[in-house]
Design brief:
Strand 1 and strand 2 form a beta hairpin. The chain is mainly alpha-helical and 232 residues long. It contains 10 helices and 3 strands.
């Protein structure tokens, strides 16, 4: 039996957006390795599978939503979505801890609420869906739980502006200033150009489909210029 009654298990599947055909597989997805048994009794290998499936699904979704992004940007965006903190938050939203099976030791130390265990259990559920029904079944589940995150186009890219801020303060004792120099295109397909100045000197220009994207691109180019001058 899973921890919690059948109502809680049904609630979890409804919230997840997928109903397991095999109750035994669902039980395995929600059984932590601390419960003991062979590899087919707990979720460790399903977590491994789910990690890979999640990475593929997020990469797929990011490439389709942001086709103009570079490989480096997409990698940073993916990393910001699949880290342990984010996955644990997804697990908390689903209230996985309420139906999770953990060993007595983990139970005593609050294991069902630990970030690492929650994140792993979320990945195991995705691995279980893939194992039972394939990629076409797991992709929409991933999309439904990350759609809000994907709407934030600056995911994982704040490092450019943050890094430039640090470099500018260190070298010039002043922060960089951003100015939108051009905005064009129809309302449904806007195009923005931004320039950055430090102490009155132009250090970078960038373009993008949003103001934030153009600022990030300008910051990236400014950092490249400063690096080329040996100033980073």
């Amino acid at each position: 039996m899973l921890t919690g009654d059948s109502t809680e298990v049904e609630r979890l599947q409804d919230a997840l957006g997928y109903r397991f055909r095999d109750p035994g597989l669902l039980k395995r997805c929600l059984t932590h390795v601390s419960c003991g048994g062979g590899m087919d009794a707990h979720n460790e290998s399903l977590e491994f599978l789910g990690d890979a499936v999640l990475g593929l699904a997020i990469s797929d979704l990011l490439m389709r939503r942001f086709p103009e992004r570079s490989e480096g940007d997409l990698s940073r965006m993916r990393a910001s979505l699949v880290n342990r903190r984010v996955l644990a938050d997804k697990a908390r939203f689903l209230r996985i801890g309420e139906v999770l099976r953990v060993g007595k030791g983990e139970e005593r130390t609050g294991g069902r609420h630990k970030e690492s265990i929650l994140a792993a259990s979320f990945e195991a559920l995705l691995g279980g869906i893939y194992w039972e029904a394939g990629y076409e079944a797991v992709r929409p589940v991933v999309e439904s739980h990350f759609i809000g995150d994907l709407e934030h186009g600056g995911l994982g890219l704040d490092d450019y502006k943050t890094r430039l801020q640090e470099v500018s303060q260190r070298l010039y004792r002043v922060p960089p200033t951003y100015r939108l120099v051009r905005e064009s295109g129809p309302s449904h397909d806007r195009y923005f150009e931004t320039e950055i100045r430090v102490g009155g000197h132009l250090v970078g220009q960038g373009e993008g489909r949003s103001k934030k994207q153009s600022e990030q691109e300008a910051a990236r180019r400014a950092l490249e210029m400063l690096q080329g001058q040996g100033q980073q």
